[in-house]
């Protein structure tokens, strides 16, 4: 209790005025700081702001993970249901692996084509070269020549898409040979080398130009399904080309061309000669041409 008067005397100025009045009259040495929000210090405010940003980033990462999981599951479902998508993905993976292997070998200073040829035999290499040459020839021979040539190209393309069942073919062939041999129309002769040869006595077993036995053949359901599938693919391709032509704005025009080059040539003729042949074309449309 005795120490409080001495403390009070030290805090008072020499002239005897109260310290509170001196502090009010004294100008402030520092500018007043900005008011603190809700009684927080600047450090606490910055920490709270960083915490809020961190929580927002966590929420965004969680949402992104959920979205990626949904997209991955949807992609897996689409690949499982659509084999074309799976083929496309496998093709992209093979192309990426091919480019990566080529880059690694070239970075190491090796010859990529030479090293890749080690995995192929001579026969496989010749077959591959023949296939590449055949594809290049087919790609160059895509111009219209005549309807017979177009039909031949369609026929060859259909033959490439046929996958014959050779096992069933051999089974049907042996059944027909046994039936013909039992009826006496076919003789089975064994040669000196042990090879069996079928000899047609009356010429009714092997087909000729005058044979009509193919008319009595009844294909199985799988063969009919293949034929129906081929017709549907041809119809889909025809409709796709028609939609492409309609997308180009040709649905209101008369088709006077057989391919794209012929269309461009007809457009060039129309651009130069339509003004001279307008009367003739109008007479053709009215049916009043003399």
From TrEMBL:
Cellular compartment(s): Nucleus
One family name in Pfam for this protein: SYF2
InterPro entries named among the record's database cross-references: mRNA_splic_SYF2
Biased composition (Basic residues): 1-10
One biological process term in Gene Ontology: mRNA splicing, via spliceosome
Keywords: mRNA processing, mRNA splicing, Nucleus, Spliceosome
Region Disordered, residue ranges: 1-90, 234-254
Entry GO terms, CC: catalytic step 2 spliceosome; post-mRNA release spliceosomal complex; Prp19 complex
Basic and acidic residues compositional bias, start-end: 60-77
The keyword Iron appears for this protein: no
Presence of the UniProt keyword tRNA-binding in the record: no
Subunit structure of this chain's protein: May be part of a spliceosome complex.
Family: Belongs to the SYF2 family.
Main function: Involved in pre-mRNA splicing.
Name listed for the protein in its UniProt record: Pre-mRNA-splicing factor SYF2
Organism field: Emericellopsis cladophorae
């Amino acid at each position: 209790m005795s120490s409080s008067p001495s403390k009070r005397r030290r805090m008072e100025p020499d002239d005897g005025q109260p310290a509170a009045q001196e502090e009010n009259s004294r100008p402030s040495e520092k500018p007043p700081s900005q008011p603190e929000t809700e009684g927080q210090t600047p450090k606490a405010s910055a920490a709270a702001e960083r915490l809020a940003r961190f929580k927002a980033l966590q929420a965004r990462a969680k949402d992104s993970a959920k979205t990626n999981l949904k997209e991955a599951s949807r992609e897996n479902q689409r690949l499982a249901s659509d084999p074309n998508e799976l083929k496309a993905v496998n093709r992209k993976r093979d192309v990426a692996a091919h480019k990566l292997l080529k880059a690694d070998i070239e970075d190491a200073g090796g010859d990529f084509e030479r090293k890749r040829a080690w995995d192929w035999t001579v026969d496989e290499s010749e077959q591959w070269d023949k296939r590449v040459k055949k594809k290049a020839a087919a790609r160059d021979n895509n111009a219209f020549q005549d309807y017979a040539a177009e039909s031949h190209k369609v026929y060859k393309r259909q033959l490439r898409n046929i996958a014959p069942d050779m096992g069933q073919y051999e089974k049907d062939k042996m059944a027909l040979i046994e039936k013909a041999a039992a009826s006496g129309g076919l003789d089975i002769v064994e040669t000196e080398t042990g090879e069996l040869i079928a000899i047609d006595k009356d010429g009714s077993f092997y087909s000729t130009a005058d044979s009509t036995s193919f008319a009595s053949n009844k294909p199985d359901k799988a063969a009919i399904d293949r034929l129906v599938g081929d017709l549907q693919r041809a119809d889909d391709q025809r409709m796709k080309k028609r939609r492409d032509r309609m997308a180009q704005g040709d649905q209101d025009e008369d088709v006077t061309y057989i391919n794209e080059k012929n269309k461009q040539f007809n457009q060039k003729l129309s651009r130069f000669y339509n003004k001279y042949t307008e009367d003739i074309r109008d007479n053709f449309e009215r049916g009043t041409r003399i």
